[in-house]
Specification:
The protein is α/β, with parallel strands linked by helices. The protein has 15 helices and twelve strands. Strands 6-7-8-3-9-10-12-11 form an eight-stranded mixed beta sheet, with helices on both faces. It has a four-stranded antiparallel beta sheet with strand order 2-1-4-5. The structure holds adenosine-5'-triphosphate, iron/sulfur cluster (SF4) and magnesium ion. Magnesium ion binds next to helix 1.
Length: 367
């Protein structure tokens, strides 16, 4: 028997499609990635790119009706997609856990927060009954909640947003999971509290040698707190690799555009934020070729008809989905051609296309 440890998580060709009145929404469409043990993977992408559906598919928390999921989700080698619901429930908390974006909807409003932790510990038989209260207080203390004895008796509405998110994290960590999925854990919080919560999550992840998937729309957070970065667009992975490498040398035009949209401190305060022109496609009506083509400044005719596959740079474990990767001669050639023609691969003059997809303000960003 091999003594090679499997990675913490391996996802292979994961799909979640929803049947809607407008057709099939391919919200997660062939996603594959590996998360080594004790690593943090940030998943970034614009709103609607499939980040939450991906995390819910891994947790097996997608709706039961009108939903089709397939593929493999191997947690330390065990395929979660094949588990019975009862067996899946038993691994939530002590092997796999999740922090949700909005603690107000995820916490029980009519139960003191200490009891919510005790209930979870009891349900999963993680602590003897007599020690439940002490364990709940210790869990609150471990996430930096001051005066945890008093706080344990308070209800969620009596706590600040930052404290509520700490309670959510205490609940998610109470079972000491191997893998934690944090879906936009700080978007509802102000910037100072955001930094405190992110530091707490990273500290806990390091101390527990836990693996973590951190979902965020903020590339700044991803670069500060993640080892690896995965960029999603319209249900697919468009780029993945070591976070520093992907951010230093993005290959996907979409990642490049996202990176350009991060506000820079050096910019004068009145500087306009650069945005990515246009909108992501509707999931029930995806473009035929590359899904980013209608918004891509490098797009060529090929991009409109052919679907780019994943390319790998084996030395750096960097992968991307693009026919004309950023930083290559092919990419420079594609941009030069588009500039020369004064039009995009969509065949419309730049001015018309911008009006259609983005409005005049984005003109200088595109070309
Ligand atoms: N139950 C559902 N039925 C139909 N479509 C759905 C369902 N759940 C999600 N979707 C669609 O799947 C797509 C991906 O949604 P998802 O919530 O994963 O986006 P996201 O990347 O998490 O966005 P955000 O950054 O806004 O949280 C969206 O177009 C959404 O409308
Ligand atoms: S260059 Fe083509 S393949 Fe690459 S992202 Fe743009 S449209 Fe897609
Ligand atoms: Mg989401």
């Amino acid at each position: 028997m091999s003594d090679v440890q499997p990675p913490a998580l391996e996802v292979r060709n994961l799909q979640t499609h929803f049947e809607t009145p407008h057709g099939i929404a391919r919200s997660v469409d062939g996603v594959s990635f590996t998360l080594p043990t004790s690593h943090v993977l940030a998943v970034v992408g614009e709103s609607g790119s499939g980040k939450s559906v991906l995390s819910r598919t891994i947790m097996r928390l997608t709706p039961k009706v009108n939903t089709k999921s397939s593929g493999e989700v191997l947690l330390s080698g065990v395929d979660l997609m094949k588990l019975r619901e009862k067996d899946m429930r038993s691994i939530w908390a002590d092997r796999l856990s999740m922090v949700f974006q909005d603690p107000m909807t995820a916490l029980n409003p009519v139960m003191p927060v200490g009891d919510q932790i005790s209930e979870l510990l009891l349900r999963h038989k993680l602590v003897p009954k007599a020690e439940l209260k002490t364990a709940a207080i210790a869990a609150l203390a471990s996430v930096g909640i001051p005066d945890p004895v008093a706080r344990a008796n308070q209800y969620p509405h009596e706590l600040s947003g930052g404290m509520r998110q700490r309670v959510m994290i205490a609940i998610a960590l109470a079972g000491n999971p191997e893998l934690l999925i944090a879906d936009e854990p700080t978007t509802a919080l102000d910037v100072t509290i955001q930094a405190q919560i992110m530091t707490l999550l990273r500290q806990q992840q390091t101390q527990r040698r836990m693996s973590m998937i951190l979902i965020t729309h903020d590339l700044g957070i991803a670069s500060a707190y993640a080892d690896d970065l995965m960029v999603m667009y319209a249900g697919q992975v468009v780029e993945r690799g070591p976070a520093a490498e992907v951010l230093r040398k993005p290959r996907s035009p979409y990642t490049e555009a996202l990176r350009r949209s991060i506000p820079r401190l050096a910019n004068p305060s009145h500087a306009r934020l650069e945005v990515i022109p246009g909108r992501p496609p509707t999931m029930t009506d995806l473009p035929k070729g590359c899904r980013f083509a209608p918004r891509c400044r490098y797009a060529q005719d090929k991009c409109l008809t052919e679907v780019p596959g994943i390319e790998k740079e084996t030395q750096t474990e960097h992968e991307y989905r693009c026919f004309y990767p950023v930083g290559t001669a092919a990419n420079r050639g594609a941009l030069a051609l588009n500039l020369e023609r004064g039009r995009t691969a969509a065949g419309l003059p730049v001015s018309q296309r911008l009006e259609k997809h983005a409005g005049q303000r984005s003109k200088e960003i595109l070309l």
